[in-house]
Specification:
Blueprint lengths: L1 H22 L5 H14 L3 H8 L2 H4 L3 H30 L3 H26 L15 H12 L1 H13 L32 H7 L7 E2 L1 E5 L6 H13 L3 E3 L11 H11 L2 E6 L13 H11 L4 E6 L13 H17 L3 E3 L5 H15 L5 E2 L1 H5 L1
Parallel strand pairs: 2-3, 2-4, 4-5, 5-6
Antiparallel strand pairs: 1-7
Helix pairs in contact: 1-2, 3-5, 6-7, 6-8, 7-8, 10-14
Length: 375
């Protein structure tokens, strides 16, 4: 970093003095410093500016700009690599084995998206499938930092190192980054050879769909949980729908709910510690939405809170509603295999994982971008 500063500071100063001499600039020290900083930011981009605004024939007379651009990229790459190594060392330094397993799980969950991003940059794009072969922890960590960002990457890794079963709960503990299917034999390491994986990474499919998911739950006690579930849906590239997204309308509420559920591909149910407000028939809106989704044939993803606590400022429900809530839970558990969460931070992982599995096992109608559909 010091070499980078020493190299560019004199060059930026000379550039500014040249501009001041050519255009007769006389200004205060703060203005001069601002211009100096701007010059220092623009000069390292001179190679890219040359390629953008000059023809190849004219650009050859500005080879100095190209050399400046290459040196800048070299120094910046070294600085970034050094910082990544520092973050990797600080994270993996404590409880190394547990954090290594967390890194394996998180990378296994995201390596297809990382490979797909790399396929758009690489020529030939097929080489991006080699990302699925990576075994070295430092390389996995580097790709995750770029894909998720520093703060999000460390947050996810810390959460998974504390509770590994949040992601890929059926993994054998002693088999590293090989995961076991929910039914049937374990999936091998050669994931990159599977036709479906290659089609996804290389974007071979002609039409890409986005699926719409209806989020159903009581509202007062699960506001933050709904936001976490929303994060999981957005990470899975789905379109969320729910009460908070409804427009102001003169249409009867229940009719509006049914219309939105009909447009959705999947139904996501969160059950906490409240039965919620009820319809005129005495059934909670959440249970009524669930019954309608089941009768409509919508695939259901249910998640239950393991130990819901009273919410400050929200009145506790009476015995009748508590009994109805328990009966509702029992009905959902009999009909589905629900997931369970204890803290709201677990929901994004659980929701994203469940949606990705549902996309493969029960693909819905989905939404298709108009231009692509016409192409």
């Amino acid at each position: 970093m010091l070499l980078f500063i020493v190299f560019w500071l004199p060059l930026s100063f000379l550039g500014y003095e040249l501009l001041a001499h050519l255009f007769d600039l006389e200004s205060s020290l703060p203005v001069r410093m601002c211009l100096l900083v701007l010059t220092g930011l623009i000069v390292p981009q001179s190679g890219r500016l040359k390629d953008a605004f000059l023809t190849p024939r004219a650009a050859k007379y500005f080879s100095l700009f190209q050399a400046i651009d290459e040196q800048t990229r070299l120094y910046v790459a070294r600085i970034i690599n050094r910082e990544e190594r520092k973050v990797n060392t600080s994270f993996m330094g404590k409880d190394r084995e547990r954090r290594r397993r967390a890194l394996d799980r998180v990378f296994e969950q995201h390596n297809l998206e990382i490979a797909r991003e790399e396929a758009k940059k690489r020529r030939p794009p097929e080489t991006a499938l080699d990302i699925c072969k990576i075994r070295h922890p430092a390389v996995k960590f580097k790709y995750l930092l770029h894909h998720l960002g520093y703060s999000e990457c460390l947050r996810v890794l810390r959460a998974v190192s504390v509770k590994p079963e949040i992601i890929l709960p059926t993994w054998p503990v002693d088999q590293g980054d090989r995961r076991e299917g929910r039914s049937g034999p374990a999936l091998g390491r050669r994931k990159y050879e599977q036709a479906s994986v290659q089609a996804y990474v290389l974007d071979i499919a002609k039409i890409k769909k986005k699926y719409q998911v209806f989020i159903s739950s009581t509202f007062l006690d699960l506001k933050e949980e709904r936001q976490q579930a929303l994060r999981g849906l957005l990470a899975a590239e789905c379109i969320p729908a729910g009460m908070e997204f409804f427009p102001s309308s003169d249409e009867e509420l229940w009719t509006l709910i049914r219309n939105v559920v009909d447009e959705c591909d999947y139904y996501l149910l969160l059950i906490g510690g409240r039965y919620g407000s009820t319809t005129r028939e005495g059934v909670s809106y959440t249970e009524a939405e669930y019954e309608y989704a089941v009768s409509s044939g919508k695939p259901v993803l249910a998640f239950l809170h393991t130990s819901p606590a009273p919410v400050p400022g929200v009145d506790e429900e009476g015995p009748d509603k508590k009994a109805r809530l328990q009966a509702f839970k029992d009905k959902v558990c009999r009909a589905h295999a629900p997931g369970y969460w204890n803290s709201k931070e677990e929901l994004p992982f659980l929701v994203q994982q469940a949606i990705e599995h549902m996309k493969r096992s029960s693909p819905g109608v989905g939404w298709i971008r108009y231009e692509r559909a016409q192409g």
